[in-house]
# Entry
Amino acid sequence: MPLPNVSLSTYMEKSVAKLHIESLFQSALKREKSAEDELFKALTARFQVIAQKRVWDGQDAQEIAQDALMTVFSKYREATPPMGYTPWAYKVLSNKILHYYRTTARRGEKMLVTDKIELFSASWTPDPVLEPQLKECIKKIIKANPRYARILINHFHGFKPNEICNKMTITTANFYSILSRARSLLKLCLDKGDI
Amino acid sequence: MNHCTDKRFKEMRHGYELGLLNEKDRQEFELHMFDCEACFEAIAETHNASRHILQSPEIRSIINDAEQAEEAKVKEKPKPARIWSTLIPVAAIVLLVLILKPWKIEIHPDDTAIASENRLVIACFANLAEVDTANRMGEAVSNLLITDLAESHYLQVVSSQRVYDLLRSMGLPEECQIDPEISTEIAQRANAKWLLTGSIIQDEPEMVIVSQLIDVSTGNTVATQRVSSDSIESIFSLVDKLTIEVKQDLILPQAALDEPDRMVAEVTTNSPEAYAYFLDGVSNNNKLYKADAADAFRAALELDSTIAMAYYYLSELDKSSENIDKAVQYIDNASQKGQHYIRSRAAGYKGEHEEAIAELEALIKRFPDEKQGYMLIGNYYFKQRKTERAIEYYKKTIEIDPLSKLTYNQMAYSYNQIGDFQRSLWAINKYIEIAPNEANPYDSRGEIYAKMGMLDESIDSYRTALQIKPTFYDSWQKLGIMYLFKGEYNKADSCLSVAKNLGSESKIQSWSNLLILACYSRPYKLNQAMKMIDDIIANQKADKSAKSWTHYYSLYKAVILREQGDINAAFELLNAEVNDTTNKGTIFLNGYRIQFALESGRRQIAEEVLQKLESDKIIQKKGKSFLGYAKGCLAFYDKNYDEAIQQFSQTMKITADENRQDYFASGIMLGQTYILADEYDKAIQIYNEILRVYDADRALWSIWDVQAHYYLGLAYQNSNLDEMAIAQYEYFLEVWENAPDDHELITDARIRLSQLRKNP
# Structure
């Protein structure tokens, strides 16, 4: 079925959270230059964030994101992926990350956070402005939401999410809910200096 | 401000930031971020803060202190929710059983693989003993296993090429090392019953390989194997050991275990280094990196000069019969699959196409995944002009690999050959869809349009090809030819000059020169063309490497001399060229030499030359086209039109795909013969056939090409198709506006045109 003829401005309307990467792919396939540019921009940003979250090493993450982008933009016209373009683009990135872990001496993506902290400590420097502010905020959040600290400390000790849930006798939904509330407090605190 | 409407994902944000989502949720959340601007922005915004929470020792210390106090409080709290969290799922299960039981509804797994009996996928073996990615021992082991196990008649082993094709169709990189989940999916897609995965777990002091045989339909490991040897040199014997173990675990009939099992080194090489180069060559060859592939195969042969398949691949890359002879010499060192390929190509090189096809048929019967086998059969049928058969095989290739771009290319030319232009365009557009950033598909489409007589569309396509790859001299050359036919000679000259400068080989430069000549001869600027030929020949005499091309310029010059009325000089020139023993490859000039001898009243010489040529057995076999042309000319000047028609028709048939210069010349002569035999409708048919296609061979015959429009006009006029005749005469006079007024054909065309206009 042909896609509805949606203008680019619709894709980018700021009041709507949906970006419709799939539609951007479809427009780019029709050789709409502006759609292709927009697609490139959106994917670049997402690839970089996801790669950084999963790889930790900033420079490696940058390279993985670029590599994945090159693959996506050199191949996306070749055939229609049965799963759709967005999942396919995500799969390309995931494969690059997997490949990275396989080809570096590191033990793998699923290594514990304690190991990651140790492994990447050399390539990380604290932000002198953010850190003191964050210290204060964390103290306040823990006071308001003590279970947040328990989750974090279990995480630092190497427990996996389901193990933390079992230890704290909470459901996964509840687990995410605790984290979400803590995040809202953190955001508020960082923006306004207090909660 | 953006907002996320999905509460679940919104709540997952911080879990994601801190790396606290389980695998499934993480994947879902990341995918969600692609379309949810709000979640994406939120994550990007607090990236730094969450990194600090994880990495700052001071913050971790604050959290640690706070947690200790909190833990004590939590232990004291009652846990009422647990009872419900246990009871609710149990109750749900009981309820489900009660509902389903009376209806006898049974739930089965719906993803049972439809696996072929004894069909096996071998995943790339991981080399856990070596972190150096340049070390490709794992890849070597899996490829050797594929080769060794594929020797069994009781197993269907999926080739590594097929695995790469499936990866490509899934949008994944064509890499040997793939994720276990992807391996299973590949095995399912390949309809395999078994999947063999494994690892090299140790390479010193002894090499140890472990592997697992997995039932694809259940995902269960049905057997494991462990083999070891004492040194790296024995990788081949290690694979032999593993082959035996795998065959035993596959529960094959006793006959499978009793069948002759040659050592894998016997069907590949004894040298691990040579095998590594060989694998490199195969990999590059699959990616069409021809120069790299040739280098790798040569390097493999330097280490082991008996690798039959390295010679086989090289024979394809450098089109040399020498390499296929070597492959035949060492054919015992190839696997059964390889032997089929070698025998087929050896037969093909001898022109024994039926035998070549029979070998390939045997190959695909035994190895039904071999898309290359289907493609090669298609190519042989295409050469034989059994185009429908060729298309059948191309379709089978596409069934195996829907992204096989070169097959679509071949299909486009095949459909074109049978006049099915719609499908031809469909196929070439599929090629473009698969490889939109490559120049070649657009170049091919330009050629298809040119064969369909669509000049403007062809020009557009070549231009697109050149936008993608400005150094693609093929497209420059073809674009020049299109401008030539459009009568835009300056543009044509420029394009052809670019092609000449880009092409480093003397062949490309000489072809471009010949086509530039057409920019002068077609608009009847014969003196300029003649001067250019003389200059080129003078330069080529100084450059010995290019001398083999002088006979083409001599033929061109002879045709101009004939056109200018000096048929004696034309004959003498060709006669001298053929008799010059230092010249090679002049034999094809004999057809025109005999024609010009007849036209200049040297009938005896013509007959003697023909007799001499016919007595030569090699020429009888390889020179059918010019012999047929010469015999046609002899019959034509004897006014034996039936014989001439037969000879020229036969020559056109055998030169339609190769040696098209003779095809075009024969067409011109056949059309004239039909006119003299008063068979005007057939003359019209022939002229329309040869004038429909815009290609280099037609461009080279530019003088005769323009004249053909005059003769087509005659045929139309004699068939009382006056309007069509007028169009042809007008076109002829327009193109040859520079021809002298007293030119015989020009004068006649003007008179006829005037008469036709007066008597509409």
